[in-house]
């Protein structure tokens, strides 16, 4: 992901591997000079074992769909822009 290309409202994915390309999808909800915040709106239920036990379902909803802050200068290579136009 190119740090200067991200905009408010862009959709991003958390990429894991060739088998699980998009394990989470989120929207950029806040932009600052040095960081930005992603509000996760979807996660791969199979990858995160949602159907294995009720406790996974509860924990996943609580932690996987939370907001996450990312530093623009130390961008995680696993984040990919999926918004149209890139």
In short:
By secondary structure, this protein is mainly β. The protein has one helix spanning 54-63; strands at 11-14, 24-31, 35-43, 67-71, 79-81. The protein has one domain.
Write a structural description.
By secondary structure, the protein is mainly beta. It has one domain (21-81). Helices cover 12% and strands 34% of the residues. The chain is built from one helix and five strands, in the order E-E-E-H-E-E. A five-stranded antiparallel β-sheet has the order 4-3-2-1-5, with no helix packed on it. The model has no long low-confidence stretch (mean pLDDT 86).
Spell out the blueprint of helices and strands:
Layout: E1 11-14, E2 24-31, E3 35-43, H1 54-63, E4 67-71, E5 79-81
Strand order of the largest sheet: 4-3-2-1-5
What is the N-to-C order of secondary-structure elements (H for helix, E for strand)? EEEHEE
What is the end-to-end distance?
A: 10 Å
What percentage of amino acids are in beta strands? 25-35%
User: Which stretches are poorly predicted, pLDDT < 50 over at least 5 residues?
Assistant: none
Number of domains: 1
Strand count: 5
DSSP helix count? 1
Features:
single chain, 86 residues, mainly beta, five-stranded antiparallel β-sheet, 1 helix, 5 strands, globular
């Amino acid at each position: 992901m190119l740090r200067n290309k991200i905009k408010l409202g862009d959709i991003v994915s958390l990429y894991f591997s060739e088998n699980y390309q998009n394990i989470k999808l989120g929207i950029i909800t806040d932009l600052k000079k040095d960081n930005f915040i992603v509000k996760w709106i979807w996660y791969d239920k199979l990858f995160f074992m949602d159907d294995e036990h009720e406790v996974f379902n509860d924990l996943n909803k609580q932690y996987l769909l939370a907001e996450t802050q990312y530093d623009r200068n130390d961008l995680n290579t696993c984040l990919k822009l999926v918004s149209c136009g890139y």
